[in-house]
Amino acid sequence: MNNHVYEERPVTVLDMLEARDRRAFRQRELAVSHNAPLISFTMNIAGPVKNSPLIRRGFDEGLRILKNQLRAAGISLLYMEEIHEFTGNEALLAPSSSPEILKKVTSEIEDFDRLGRLFDMDVIREDGSKVDREELGFPTRTCLICGKPAKDCARSRTHTAAELQAKTKEILTAAVREADSETAADLAVRSLLFEAAATPKPGLVDRANAGSHSDMDIFTFLSSAGALRPYFKACTLAGMDTRDLPAPETFKKLQVLGRRAEGAMYEATDGVNTHKGAVFSLGILCGALGRLPRAAWSEPETVLAECGKETEGLTETYFPNLTKENARTAGEILYVRHGIRGVRGQAEDGFPAVLRYGLPVLEEGLAGGLSLNDVGCAALLHMMVHETDTNMIKRSDLATYDRVINEVRGLLKKNRFPGSEMLAALDERFIAMNLSPGGTADLLAMTYFLHFLKNA
């Protein structure tokens, strides 16, 4: 794969002719070496600039769709290569199928995908000839502005280059925005599902039992997670919409969305609070993703730092002018008497429990051959002893909480990745004491989320 950094600059006619010749030569090489039809995927980009970060994102989305559709059709790849130059992006694929079937797959993408009009997916037979879409009954390509046959508009120069460039940018921007927000929402929900499924988790709902809860089970969590998907997408879009504003402006929009999400959660669970903490934490994370370029999504430090910027000053805003005399709620009392900031402090600090303990433990365990289930349970315990879970304190008292956390800390010193029997015994103890580390469970969902983002 040619994936070096290219210079973004206008192309000349000579540049494009040379690129076309190189492509044709490479196509002939691959056709001979693999004795198979080829798919040549490029982009129809009007104007002198044929590549940019936005154009590359559109190309990457198209290649993802193409590979997925080939896989869905049961077609394997014998070979694939990508080329990224200032003259444009290109992928050459050698699938194990007939040219006619390949052309059907590619024509459907070109005709029905939101970016399809910008895709040029040629299917080349072993003898070098191209498969014509009209041979298979597909209509001729249409103009991206007026919808008439593209060849007619090109021949008569119906539309100016400026009009075509503006429309191209509009299509790319809308499609990338939609794709990114959909991806963020999908991964957020997957993270909630993985957190719920990880078993055994001391005191928490999982596949084995309902933990220290009598009003919910794993199916309650599944219903809640599904209901929150539109919220996570909206949070990502809110981040995109406020990308050029100070980060706290994003959080203001998230607060409004969060209240609506809580209503959707309660409707899905018949009034049970399953994910109120996750609405807060994962909503902030999705907002951060919207504010950041897609390339930064795989950088946990960058993502969590943006979360901290969104919530700067949150604790002081939430707990104004508090004293020991006027503190009323459990959270206010813990803050005034013990300086415990809870999840708001975690957010302001960029969720350090996730960055320093949850994610490193999860990835260390995976590198050692453990399953996503087992590393999730271990990451939960490691974060539990490095952040203050106010849910546990509310269900007992500070002294009990400190004693239990010290016990868990001692367990981890003996075994960094406790086995299922040890976790099950701890689960029984937590249930007997009515303890539930719900705040840490939300951090576990964030940990899964950041891990998934590395491969998104």
Output the keywords.
single chain; about 450 residues; alpha+beta; four-stranded antiparallel beta sheet; 4 strands
Notes on the structure:
The protein is 60% helix and 6% strand. It has 456 residues and is an alpha+beta fold. Strands 2-3-1-4 form a 4-stranded antiparallel beta sheet. The mean pLDDT is 93.
Give a count of the beta strands, DSSP E runs of length 2 or more. Answer: 4
- pLDDT below 50 for ≥5 consecutive residues: which ranges? none
Shape: elongated
**Strand-residue proportion:** 5-15%
> Helices and strands, in N-to-C order?
HEHEEHEHHHHHHHHHHHHHHHH
Mean pLDDT: 93
Distance between the termini: 19 Å
- Per DSSP, the total helix count is 19
Helix/strand/pairing class, anyone?
alpha+beta
Question: What helical percentage do the residues reach?
Answer: 55-70%
> What is the radius of gyration?
27 Å
Describe, in short, the structure shown:
Helices cover 60% and strands 6% of the residues. By secondary structure, it is of the alpha+beta class. The protein has a 4-stranded antiparallel sheet.
Furnish the topology, listing elements before pairings.
Blueprint: H1 13-34, E1 38-43, H2 53-72, E2 77-85, E3 88-95, H3 99-112, E4 119-124, H4 150-156, H5 161-197, H6 218-227, H7 229-241, H8 247-269, H9 276-291, H10 300-310, H11 314-318, H12 330-338, H13 342-348, H14 352-367, H15 372-384, H16 390-394, H17 398-414, H18 420-432, H19 438-453
Antiparallel strand pairs: 1-3, 1-4, 2-3
Helix pairs in contact: 2-3, 2-5, 5-6, 5-7, 5-9, 5-19, 6-8, 7-8, 7-9, 8-9, 9-10, 9-19, 14-15, 14-19, 15-19
